[in-house]
Amino acid sequence: MWRLNPTGLAPEAVAAFLRHSLRPEESVFQGVRRVPGALPRVRRGTEALADEDTLAERLVAALADRVGRHLAAGAVDVSLSGGVDSATLCALAARQAPGRVRAWTMDVHFADATERRNARTVAREAGVELVDVAIPDAVLPELFEPAVLSQETAILNARAVASFAFYAEARRQGAVTLLSGAGADEVLMGNPEALVGATARVREDRRLAREVLRPGPVDNLGVDQRARLLPWEAGLAPGDEDHPEEVRYAAWVLWELVLPPELRSASTQGVKVHTPYLDAGFADAALALPRDVLARHDAGKWLFRHAVRSLVPDAVRLARKTPRYAQTALSSPVRARWLELYREWLTPDRLGPLEVVDVGAARALLERSARLAPDASEAGGVDRLLMRLCSLAMLHAHASARPPCPES
Fold first, then answer.
1. Is the pTM of the predicted complex or chain greater than 0.85?
2. Pairs from 343-346 (Cβ < 8 Å, separation ≥ 24)
């Protein structure tokens, strides 16, 4: 993005971004458009075309093939969160490259204790070296701005900042290429209830955005029609509408929320991240599976969990999914420093140039957040908005301060 030398952010695009109504081809940057990713050609099956054991064997074989190809190309490091997806990658890599694989995990205050324990178990049973990257809470606020600039988009939680720190330390310790489990949830229906939760978050985000945005464009009925659609329903290419909503939502999550902190943070630090679950050789096989072999017994990824029973300990294989978006600054041990940082950026001098934000309303929301308990029902939504506002102010300040490209 920065090599394109944007001169700042586009006010209407900023408002659309905060309302979750920015189209896939649009960007918040002045004069910059995005090339949206295409939805997969493969359609979710309606019925199993083979017995479940056969499907399971094919699924593992497809993943093992992708892992083997990455190992052959020189990848020997695996990001290991302790969930079933990264545990399977670690086990497959260790089988195909015994004695060569290192597993990397993150020690940060919001990391799930059970998953961290499971990561140690997986590494021990797979016979791989485990590198535990400690990320002190105090460094996260200080890395917020460089993380935003590296990801070239607004950050919505502290995990995205921790990813930036994680890849920096991995590179310092010699990692060049890492295998990541990113995308497994999306192609394997890892959380069948995610769509319901995401819809509620979008509505909450829009309600809070209305508090801080100046009035925007509306139709002749006084309604902003673009802000009525869910973001994964907007800007569909011809033919995409026949994908299940679950697949359209999964694609949106990957493009907008999951991949920027994984891929861009790593790239900034000189680390290349490979995502075998999103490689066509595996993703096509996963997306062709019918829903009833993936979502079963109130859990997701059922067939996959069954398929890896000889690779991953049951405690890991059958563990429930932990929340991905709950890491707020309000729950941080260094909450006071986060609030101080918010106050530094949510000022007339820094928010004013965005043109669409009511600075007084944003400051009022900030002071309201300072009084919220970390577990208050609106804490997550308020903190997401504050992080996004600060991120947008940082992106605009950086873009407008850069000298114009001579060729522009």
1. yes
2. 345/389, 345/390, 345/393, 345/394, 346/386, 346/389, 346/390, 346/393
